[in-house]
Amino acid sequence: MRILVFNAGSSSLKFGVFDGDLQILKGSFDRFGNDGCDQSLAVGNAAPERVRATHSDIGTAIAAVPGLLAEKAVAGLQAVGHRLAHGGTEFTGPALIDDAVLARIEALTPLAPLHNPAMIRALQLARDLWPDLPQVAVFDTSFHLSNPARATTYAVPSAWRAVGLRRFGFHGTSHRYVAQRAAEALGRPLVELRIISMHLGNGASACAVQYGASIDSSMGMTPLEGLVMGTRSGDIDPGAFGFLHRELGLDIPAIEAALYGESGLKALAGSADMRDVEAQAADGNTEAQLAITLYAYRARKYLGAYAAAMGGVDAIVFTGGIGENSASMRRRICDGLQFMGLMLDEDLNRSPDLSDRAAPRIHAQNSRVAVMVTETAEQLMIARDVEALLGRRTVTALAIPISVSGRHVHLSQQSVEALFGPGYRLTEGAPLRQPGNWVAEERVTLQGPKGCLHHVAILGPLRPRTQIEVSRTDSFALGIDAPVRNSGQLDNTPPVRLIGPHGHEDSTGLIIAARHVHTNPTDAAVMGLVDGDMVAIAVKSDDGRGLTFGGTLIRVAPGALTEMHLDTDEANAAGIDRRADGTLAANVHATPLP
Ligand code: AMP
Questions:
Q1: pLDDT tens across 216-235, in order?
Q2: 8 A C-beta contact, residue 541 and residue 579
Q3: Closest Cα to residue 153, out of 168, 139, 163?
């Protein structure tokens, strides 16, 4: 599929044409002024042609793109993809643009007043220029919508949170790409890895990618939070606002403008460009030296924090202009992490070959943590998303029955024997709706440091590993912090005591089951879904409240009956009493995990 991708910033426009994963054209416009703008255009792998073009703003630059495509004999476009900075909480994945979707995107502008407007303008212009082509928006924020509430919530008054103040995270398309690329290069499934992605460019952010899903990232409500950046401060005490107002008489817009445009490397060392800062530091400039040490220190703190958040780390990936090019910055960030088993290889780190989207390792043979470098490829990822979305349109919005799961356990034979005695066999009771599954007549007790849950159901058949599924409320009753996990993803899960009539067992495997939809290949095809998709499901309830559940995993298996599994907390939140149906939220899909 031939796809044109736009990435519009407030003062620049990048675009590319992709055929599958092959980039056949790469262009950009920037440094707009009264006399025009800098234009760069490259066909395939050829060197870019750079000229000063006459376009004085992004609008006229976009209008010139059809002419440039014709000049380079690039024809046969089938779709247009757009990078959008902010998709709020509702765009869990790429969205096919129509008037209604565009209106929903426009309504999110207050969340990203500096970034979304230029991108929306590019989208509108492209719709006028290519009215017959499908246009798809891909959002920087979508990847992070899997972050748990503990990572997205600020501890601030509820009225502030009610108007939408929360952490979102950005650079999602880049983090998603480099995490996938790292897993590919390691030859391991992404869903088995804990990866920290370090996007160190002009803007910079770190992201904890646990088993394929983002669980935390360093940018917050806005792209200001987190790492030190070219002109942005990163983390700063919000008390600074009051202090600066009292000491310097600065108002909020002035402080905000300075935190975005006059801070970071620029404030510390007089240049936002890491190449200049490194050169000055090597010449003995102490301000540049401080900028570099502070930059690396902040990045290393995030690496440590995310390793702790994920209970370990399998791979760290560097990307972005600084992450890709600065061997000394990579070294500074990684030095001191030997306690985590991270060892760099000096030679590999010095000059990794990143051509052809390679993701070379730069860690030593004896390093427990893989460290890799790769060029980010946000436009390629957008093109892939567009193709995936358009290739899998929903044919029919099936009604998806909701099944509410109470707390229950799946036991291994070893656990059965520990709880009920050697050689014990569970008594098969009532069948469950999913073929082959049943409730045992026996029950167990769960015990944690805070309390017990009695008469907990056991579901059959037996499993190779014991898994205990509770709701968030149950986990507080037990007093144990259970992670939200997909069934079977039990590494680094906490232990809980299981008590049966014969004895007890302290078993890991305590989880809050991530919501999911079971379906079969036939229904999945009708809904335009594949195994591993993350979708939003809108649920209506008898009391009229209902809820749309983002981040819902699709699990396709032959013979499965289509139904959505929620736990009791989720069902209560949606006002679901006994029976309810859900439907796929329109026009939004997230791409499947590879
Ligand atoms: P990006 O926003 O990803 O294009 O990254 C821009 C940043 O990468 C700027 O701070 C550049 O100075 C930095 N950068 C590019 N090349 C190098 C290099 N060879 N060494 C250090 N920093 C670099």
A1: 999 999 999 999 999 999 99
A2: no
A3: 168
Q: Is 326 in the pocket of ligand 1 (CB under 6 A)?
A: yes
Q: Which CATH number fits domain 515-589: 2.40.40, 2.70.98, 2.30.30, 2.60.40?
A: 2.40.40
Characterize the bridge pairing of strands 95-96 and 135-139: antiparallel
Give the pLDDT confidence of 330-354 residue by residue, as tens digits.
Answer: 999 999 999 999 999 999 999 999 9
Instruction: Name the residue of 175, 228, 274 whose CB sits within 8 Å of the most ligand 1 atoms, as the mutation to test its pocket.
Output: 274
Determine the residue of 232, 271, 325, 330 to mutate for testing ligand 1's pocket, defined as the one with the most ligand atoms within 8 A of the Cβ atom.
325
Nearest atom, ligand 1, residue 376 CA = 3
CATH number of 172-382: 3.30.420.40
User: For the whole prediction, is pTM greater than 0.85?
Assistant: yes
Count of positions (residues) in the chain: 594
Cα of 447 to ligand 1 centre, how many Å?
Answer: 53
DSSP conformation class of 344: B
Domain boundaries, the chain: 2-139, 172-382, 405-513, 515-589
Per cent of the chain over pLDDT 90 is 81
> For 2-139, which CATH superfamily applies?
ATPase, nucleotide binding domain (3.30.420.40)
Structure tokens given for 84: 């959008």
What are the structure tokens assigned to 485, written together?
């996990």
Q: Per-residue pLDDT tens for 183-193?
A: 999 999 998 89
Active-site residue, from 21, 98, 128, 140: 140
